[in-house]
Amino acid sequence: MSPQTARRSPVDWSGAILNGYLVLFFAYMFLPLLFMVVAAFNANPTPSVTDWQGFSLRWFTELPQDERFLQGLVHSLAIAVGVIVIAIPLGLAGALVLTRLQSRGTTVLYTVLVSPILTPGIVLGATTMIFWRDAFGVQAGLLTATIAQAGFIASYCMLMFMARLQRQDRVLEEAALDLGASSVFVFRRITLPFLMPTVLTASVISFLQSIENYNTTFFAIGSSWTLVTEIGARMRFGLSPVVNVIGVIFVAITIVAATAWVLSRRRAGPATG
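^ thats the sequence. predicted structure below, dont judge the formating
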């Protein structure tokens, strides 16, 4: 008697481990956001999910009445726009110098230009505030906070521009220069259009980094405040569900903006391809 034995397929442990890791990863990333959203609709005056006291929109109606939160949001937006205006040109200039400069000092210059990323935000904020106060008599406020943030955000922009420039075929630039075009013309008609996708991406990244920044802003803004620093200050006395409402609004705006971006790219894809 020779029955055929069925061969058992080996267990795919790698797939199981990967799936388990993905579950833990997404749970770690999105469960806090889910709890935040649920707490925003809880009538409990203390943000909570487990101590449910009924569904309520009370905190959504209280947000427009909180003048410091609204003013802090205005300050945050003003600083973010200023950071974009400063960081994008600085980052682009640094990237052009490092990618076009053929010198032994390029490595040293690269280290210097990247160093703000590695500098603690407390140091950047405090030194910026002290420098502008003592050297130019500028008191700590929105201007010093904008300059302090732009100091390290420009380094991020520079790295993004460098990555883009390293993929550029410079034949068009060299051909235009050989035909008598000026450097300004070449930059405006060839280099800048090639970099425009990165300009937009770097602007979005700069805006988001500025909005959420706390350490650098706190030590450079003086007696003024942003939305983030105001939230940090209130945490000393207990968190309000209004903060959860702000989080819900930002999450909703992010989802809508990301969806609109993806849809616009899909519509533009066939036309440009």
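The chain is about 75% helix and 0% strand.
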